[in-house]
Amino acid sequence: MAPFPPPPVNTIDWSNVGFKVREVNGHIESTYSKTTGKWTPLKFVADPFMRIHGMAPALNYGQQAYEGLKAFRGPDDTTISIFRADRNAKRLQHSAEVASMPPVPEDVFLAACRAAVALNAGFVPPHATGAAMYIRPQLYGSSAQLGLNPPEEYVFAVFVVPTGVYHGVHPVKALILDEFDRTAPRGTGNAKLGGNYAPVLRWSDAARAEGYGITLHLDSAKHEEVDEFSTSGFIGVARHGDEVTLVVPDSTSVIDSVTSSSVQEIARSFGWKVEKRPIKYSEIPDFSEVFAAGTAAGLVPIRSITRRIDPSSSQSLLKTREGHGRVSSAKQGEETITFIADGVEDAGEVCLRLLSTLKGIQLGKLPDEFGWRFEVREEDGRKVEDGLRGVMP
Ligand SMILES: Cc1ncc(COP(=O)(O)O)c(C=O)c1O
Hints:
By secondary structure, this protein is α+β, with helices and mostly antiparallel strands. It has two domains: 14-165, D-amino Acid Aminotransferase, Chain A, domain 1 (2-Layer Sandwich), CATH 3.30.470.10; 172-361, D-amino Acid Aminotransferase, subunit A, domain 2 (D-amino Acid Aminotransferase, Chain A, domain 2, Alpha-Beta Barrel), CATH 3.20.10. The protein is built from eight helices and 19 strands. The chain has helices at residues 57-60, 85-98, 106-118, 198-209, 258-269, 317-320, 349-362, 379-382, and strands at 27-33, 38-39, 43-45, 64-66, 69-73, 80-83, 132-141, 153-163, 172-176, 214-218, 226-229, 233-240, 243-249, 273-277, 289-294, 298-308, 327-328, 334-338, 373-375. Strands 9, 10, 11, 12, 13, 14, 15, 16, 17 and 18 form a ten-stranded mixed sheet that branches. The model is unreliable at 388-393 (pLDDT under 50). It binds pyridoxal-5'-phosphate. The site of pyridoxal-5'-phosphate has 13 residues, from α5 and β15.
């Protein structure tokens, strides 16, 4: 019997994987029926398509939630493990509740992620590339439903895609979005629902066209406190001499980032402090570093944060933090807080130290002291039903 895991497939140029969606062997599906109260046994489906009724609430009312996590090969490519899948299982349960859907039990979630990776193991990138397989669990209301009531059936599916690696750590410029709120104050910002993302696209696209690689949201009620970046959590670093404190927003409108909580635990293990509290816009200049935390890129150092704001506004830093060394204004109605000067490509030392430990754990180069690696075995792929898609009844 061939050993597990198989080596990376030779149909992909692993030195140049990039971020396009590549076809793999297939995905995992399970269906929940409200009548039986049960999830069907996991099924492997050998194609990337979902067969779903056009009147499904997923397509009409946005009754949907998703997750994002990663699987990595260990040294010598001889093991594969998924990073902190239990956290994503719990987060999907939370999102399900917010979108009026039944929770996927944690054991079903973990078995489905493990099976999806095991049955596509050849598509997990080689260890030496530092790249990973992205895992995309998704849940949605799938049976036909005209009225605005929760439907009878829900589909839970897990897709996987091999992804590339961001070479080096490149600081990016951030733009605060003041004209658009991604979530209402008592809304759905703490759930990973597709509907929170589509409306952001045109704003992040416009920002990118102006050279801002990432967009930042303030609290929707007053635009006074930091919420999160559009696709990642916010972490500020407060330094007093040798004392390092990570400051993360305490907001009910942000996603509970697995990456952020992981680097918070790593920071504590270094003897650093962590504060979770509301972060006022006006105190951002006091941070020595700011970075974005998310599964896609790990930690991304923020070069600068720009806000389009009337200088006469009571919130303008030109007023509240007049003369602060990090604050500047390149043009009327715009102010920028700079952490890493233009032309400098180096991330801050706190960011780099956290990132190298995080990656070391994910890639199996460091001991798994926190119990974060969920190993994938061959039998994880054997527990699912065969992959032929049945026709709709
Ligand atoms: C809005 C938002 N915030 C934060 C995160 C970071 O979460 P995680 O670290 O679990 O990927 C994500 C990405 O999932 C996100 O979409």
